Amino acid sequence: MKYALIGFGTIRHAHVRAIREICHGEIVAVCDTHLDRKKLESVPDAKPYQDYRQLLQREKMDAVVVLTPHLLHPEISAAALQAGCHVFCEKPVAVHKLQAEPLAAVVAQSDRVFAVNYMNRFRPDVQAVKALLDENRLGKIQTVHFVNNNWLRSRAYFRSSDWRGTWAKEGGGVLTNQSPHDLDRILYLFGLPEEVTAQAGTSEFHNDLLVEDHVDALLSFRNGMRLYFSTATHLHPGVDRMEIWGDRGYLKMESGVLTLAQLDEPLDEWNQRNEEMFGAPQPTWSERKITPLSFDDLHAAGHVNFARAVAGQEQVMTSFTQALQSVELANAMVLAGYTKKWVPLPLDAQAYDEFFQAMIQREQRIEANGAKH
Fold first, then answer.
1. Max CA separation in the chain (angstroms)
2. Whether this model's pTM surpasses 0.90
3. In CATH, what class is 121-292+324-368?
4. Are 134 and 237 in contact (CB under 8 A)?
5. Do strands 214-220 and 226-232 pair parallel, antiparallel, or not at all (unpaired)?
6. Is 2-119+296-317's fold the same as 121-292+324-368's?
7. Phi and psi angles of residue 243, each rounded to the nearest 5 degrees, phi first
8. In 155-273, which residue ranges form alpha helices assigned H by DSSP?
9. Neighbour-count burial of 339, counting CB atoms closer than 10 A to its CB (0-12 exposed, 13-18 middle, 19+ buried)
10. Quick check: bond before 266 cis, omega within 30?
11. Predicted confidence band at 372 (pLDDT cuts at 50, 70, 90)?
12. Cβ(238)–Cβ(248) under 8 Å?
């Protein structure tokens, strides 16, 4: 399969390796506004472009991989689909729901494969948790605690590109760049909540940013389940830990280890029989260590899935519809975090767009007064 890469920044290495070494594809063209000889060394046979429109008009390829800053994802993805190409888009598919509507119309009319790189769906530990939930091993899920603050980002990181950590050029903070993977994990395992409330803000560690670098959220689901979520880019050392309580047990996923405590019967049934004032049923404990995939191997898994979907051999792991739910959930958390209100889902896209535009205008006023962001 012949590929073109639009956007050729830091993340390019994992995609180039996956396409050439794992999928045995051919990269015929690359596009970026900042191309140099060093960047092109890894793709010596690819034709360089600085305008993606020219690339789409002049080159013949089967698939386009979109690796640009987030705000450009919908526009370029739509253009590639309209040019007759299959599309593999880095997350997120858009930075807010309203922005994705034109792309949604193009996707609905296209017969091309469209996939989004939520690579953590391929993590062996996530797959193992998914299997346990599908098998109903924990019974009815009641409460989930999910903390992933293992996203430390330094000042040097944000200064590496002028679009990072901005409302106008990136579209937001941790929920737009790092935590979409976490939100997708929530959606993959539990589905879309009914409403969300949150607290969001910017720490002193990132005192030259205006986007959020930490969020603590409560997600309420229609079936009564509650999920507590926390993420941040200003803490270290961080953790990536999910704990799940059901009426038949408990499961913890952390550092490649699954810890399972299983009850012999639903807790409510035990409660009907129990006559001890401080009684409690005894669970059966087990532990399972799971070998993780590397960062590069997770990207490769996404590309293999995409190539097989193009060949008609399997479905994409993350479709446009699923990826858009991640955007919607991120938007709802941000809106809740800054307005201090419960935000229902499906999200009012117009309400979020008004908030988003107001944040851009605030950022521009501050920049006009001489601040970095």
1. 78
2. yes
3. alpha beta
4. no
5. antiparallel
6. no
7. -120, 135
8. 155-159, 180-190, 267-273
9. middle
10. no
11. low
12. no
Q: Domain 2-119+296-317 falls in which CATH fold?
A: Rossmann fold (3.40.50)
Q: What residues does 289 pair with on adjacent strands? A: 257
DSSP tag of 100: G
Helix (H) or strand (E) holding 87: strand 86-90
Cis bond upstream, residue 237 (ω within 30) = yes
Peptide bond into 283 cis (omega under 30): no
What single letter denotes the amino acid at residue 41? E
Residue-wise pLDDT for 103-126, tens only, equals 999 999 999 999 999 999 999 999
The DSSP bridge pattern shows strands 141-148 and 240-246 to be antiparallel
Helices (H), the chain: 12-17, 37-40, 52-58, 73-82, 101-109, 124-134, 155-159, 180-190, 267-273, 295-310, 320-339, 349-368
DSSP letters spanning 30-85: EE-SS--HHHHTT-TTSEEES-HHHHHHH---SEEEE-S-GGGHHHHHHHHHHTT-
Taking the domains of the chain in order of start, what are their residue ranges?
2-119+296-317, 121-292+324-368
Phi, psi dihedrals of residue 200, rounded to the nearest 5°: -140, 150
pLDDT in tens, 167-224: 999 999 999 999 999 999 999 999 999 999 999 999 999 999 999 999 999 999 999 9
Q: In the sheet where 47-49 sits, what is the strand order?
A: 47-49, 26-31, 2-6, 63-66, 86-90, 114-117
Asked if 159 and 195 count as a contact pair (C-beta separation under 8 A), the reply is no
* Crossing angle between the packed helical segments 320-339 and 101-109, to the nearest 10 degrees: 170
